[in-house]
Specification:
GO molecular function, one term: DNA endonuclease activity
Distance between the termini: 95 Å
Protein name: Smr domain protein
Radius of gyration: 38 Å
Pfam family, one: Smr
CATH architecture of one domain: 2-Layer Sandwich
Structural class: alpha+beta
Strand content: 5-15%
Number of strands: 5
Number of helices: 5
C-alpha cells in the first residue's frame, strides 16, 4: 500500500510527531551507567618448579630401581613377608600347599591382565581362599607383544610388581616344574580379619 502524505504538513513533521508520541508513551528516560569491563583473566598460579623437578627425579630413580629388579623368562618369582614363618614359605616353594583357584593370564594384553589379576585377587580374598596360582607365562611364545624393549617378559614382571604391593599377599613363589615352573606363581593369601 503506497504511503500517502498529508497535504497540510511537510514530510519531516510526521517523524517529529512519531518521536514525540514514542517519548510520551515510554515516559522519562534516564541513561544507564557505563557497564563495567569484564574481569581480567586471573594470573596463573606460580608453579613449584623445584618440587616438580624433584618429583620427576624421584620417579626416574624409582623406575631405575624397578628396572634393576626386572625378571627374565627363566627367573623364579619369590617373596615372603616377615610375619610368615620360613617353614611355611619352604612348603610353598616345594609345592606342598595346593592352590584352590587358578587364573591364566598367558597371552592377555597388559591392561586386561592387570584388571583380571586385581579382580581375581579381590574375589579370592572375598571367598577366603588361602592359596591361588597365577599363570603369567615366560614371554617366550607370544612374540614381541609380551616382551618389553629389552626382551624381558612383561606379564611376569607385572604380576611380580602387583603381588608385592598387595597387603593381602603373604608370600609367593614360582610354581614347581609340574605346575608351570617359572611361567606360573603360587600365591599365599592372608585370611581376612574377622570383626568382633
Amino acid at each position: 500500500m503506497p504511503m500517502t502524505s498529508h497535504p497540510d504538513r511537510p514530510e519531516d513533521a510526521g517523524d517529529d510527531d512519531d518521536a514525540a508520541l514514542f517519548r510520551a508513551a515510554i515516559g522519562e528516560v534516564r541513561r544507564l551507567p557505563e557497564a563495567a569491563l569484564p574481569p581480567a583473566a586471573p594470573k596463573p598460579r606460580p608453579r613449584p618448579r623445584m618440587a616438580e623437578r624433584d618429583e620427576a627425579l624421584a620417579r626416574e630413580e624409582f623406575r631405575h630401581a624397578l628396572d634393576e629388579q626386572l625378571l627374565e623368562a627363566g627367573d623364579a618369582l619369590s617373596y615372603r613377608r616377615d610375619e610368615l614363618p620360613p617353614k611355611v614359605f619352604a612348603r610353598l616353594r616345594r609345592g606342598e600347599i595346593s592352590a584352590q583357584e587358578e587364573l591364566d593370564l598367558h597371552g592377555s594384553p597388559v591392561r586386561e591382565a592387570e584388571a583380571l589379576l586385581r579382580a581375581f585377587l579381590n574375589d579370592a580374598r572375598s571367598h577366603e581362599l588361602g592359596c591361588v596360582r597365577i599363570i603369567h607365562g615366560k614371554g617366550r611364545g607370544g612374540g614381541n607383544d609380551f616382551l618389553d624393549s629389552r626382551g624381558l617378559p612383561v606379564l611376569k614382571n607385572l604380576v611380580d610388581r602387583m603381588l608385592r604391593q598387595r597387603a593381602d599377599v603373604l608370600a609367593f613363589h614360582s610354581a614347581p616344574p609340574a605346575q608351570g615352573g617359572t611361567g606360573a606363581v603360587v600365591v599365599l593369601l592372608a585370611r581376612p580379619q574377622r570383626r568382633r
